[in-house]
Task: inverse folding
């Protein structure tokens, strides 16, 4: 039924030439912190290519993702909904037979119905069973690691006839690993050994992660070339598998950064983002391409020097503090987005689907979305944001400069601060959420508490 509906959408979209529809490239990193770019204040990581994107486009200071963990954040980006609304409460694991239900329309499906070529490259993490994979969620093709790079293969994984087995692995060693598993669904000795997939089959096991950042960029470049040759507008969703740990860098970048291996990884991501930009320019399509660079959640602080930095924000991944869900966001679209600008309005990944649908002439699903059209902010960064509230899963809500956390002991391991709620912070004066002012403003806390409670009722935990 869903596919028939999308076919109907395709027929209803007004025909336009590829040149009139903007191309879209979204680079979505894994666990990159708010400060981990030169243009966001990193003191020791060099990112000249992304900094150039900011110089030629717009940098957001108050941009949020849908969750402080991987799968839920990705579901929010692709569906335009808070993750609970689409049944994704947290992180998906192999061998659990779960994922983003295909009944939910994704951004890729909407754009595909409007005539776009679509490709998912890199980390997916919305289910590794065939029905959950990108090729059944609106993407014409998929190349990448189907979940986090510290996981392991699913027992049901299909291996191509010419699959490259590395490090002494084979179908026989995989069978033995599952036969001797100590925890159900977790093959013995396979942690951090992840499959590299093309469409619905594994083509390399374990994936050589020292080269995966470059190979994902290579795949994106090939897709762009093919789409331009076919005279089709394109949507490239390039989700790098790092700087999620374990960290890997190629020989070209290993030991290059003063920030250690973590810095090497970010600088390699930056270099390959530059390669994609150069390719767009070479093909003459950079002026009509929307390029977005952001992260799925905040840094994994408990990893120490192998994790990133969210400064000046408090905390990181797995928390609903600013460091967990406020991320760097840069967008470039010449002649539409004013160059070298900064936007302080509240915006989020859930807003990308409705915004891009409007700009690209694609249709939104009939189902309720939580995202809003923020195209006005892209064109006029000082305009008032249409978003008056933003919810941090079921833990907190921001309204204007105020942020309220409900009464809950956050299981924070990376910092020693007592975070027992309820708490109220004024982010304009206290971006680091250090001073609980709930006693001074009980009426604001009560108003936000009721707003959060209403949100929880609208989007119950699946």
Result:
């Amino acid at each position: 039924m869903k596919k028939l509906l999308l076919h109907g959408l395709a027929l209803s979209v007004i025909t336009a030439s590829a040149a009139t529809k903007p191309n879209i490239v979204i680079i979505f990193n894994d666990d990159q912190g708010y400060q981990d770019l030169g243009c966001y204040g990193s003191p020791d990581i060099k990112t000249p290519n992304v900094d150039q994107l900011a110089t030629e486009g717009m940098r957001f200071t108050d941009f949020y993702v849908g969750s402080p963990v991987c799968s839920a954040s990705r579901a929010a980006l692709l569906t335009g909904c808070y993750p609970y609304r689409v049944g994704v409460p947290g992180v998906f694991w192999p061998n659990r037979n779960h994922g983003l239900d295909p009944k939910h329309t994704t951004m890729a499906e909407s754009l595909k119905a409007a005539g776009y070529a679509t490709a998912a490259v890199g980390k997916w993490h919305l289910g590794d069973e065939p029905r959950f994979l990108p090729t059944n969620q609106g993407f014409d093709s998929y190349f990448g690691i189907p979940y986090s790079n510290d996981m392991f293969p699913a027992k049901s994984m299909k291996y191509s006839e010419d699959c490259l087995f590395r490090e002494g692995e084979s179908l026989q060693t995989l069978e033995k690993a599952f036969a001797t598993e100590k925890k159900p669904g977790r093959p013995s000795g396979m942690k951090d050994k992840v499959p590299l997939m093309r469409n619905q089959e594994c083509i390399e096991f374990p994936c050589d992660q020292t080269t995966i950042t470059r190979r994902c960029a290579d795949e994106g470049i090939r897709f762009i070339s093919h789409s331009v040759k076919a005279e089709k507008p394109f949507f490239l969703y390039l989700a790098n598998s790092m700087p999620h740990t374990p960290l890997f860098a190629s020989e070209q970048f290993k030991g290059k950064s003063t920030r250690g291996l973590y810095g090497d990884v970010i600088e390699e991501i930056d270099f390959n983002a530059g390669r994609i930009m150069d390719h767009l320019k070479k093909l003459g399509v950079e002026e009509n391409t929307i390029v977005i660079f952001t992260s799925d959640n905040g840094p994994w602080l408990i990893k120490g020097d192998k994790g990133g930095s969210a400064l000046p924000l408090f905390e990181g991944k797995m928390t609903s503090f600013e460091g967990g869900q406020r991320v760097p966001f840069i967008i470039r679209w010449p002649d539409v987005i004013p160059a070298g600008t900064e936007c302080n309005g509240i915006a989020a990944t859930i807003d990308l689907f409705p915004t891009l649908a409007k700009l690209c002439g694609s249709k939104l699903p009939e189902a309720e979305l939580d995202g809003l059209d923020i195209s006005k902010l892209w064109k006029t960064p000082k305009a008032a944001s249409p978003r008056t509230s933003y919810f941090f899963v079921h833990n907190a809500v921001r309204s204007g400069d105020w942020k309220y956390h409900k009464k809950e002991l956050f299981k924070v391991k990376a910092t020693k601060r007592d975070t027992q709620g309820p708490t109220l912070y004024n982010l304009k004066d206290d971006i680091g959420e250090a001073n609980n002012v709930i006693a001074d403003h009980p009426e604001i806390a009560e108003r936000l508490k009721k707003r959060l409670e209403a949100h929880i009722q609208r989007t119950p935990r699946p």
About this structure: Residues 124 and 146 are 5 Å apart (CA to CA).
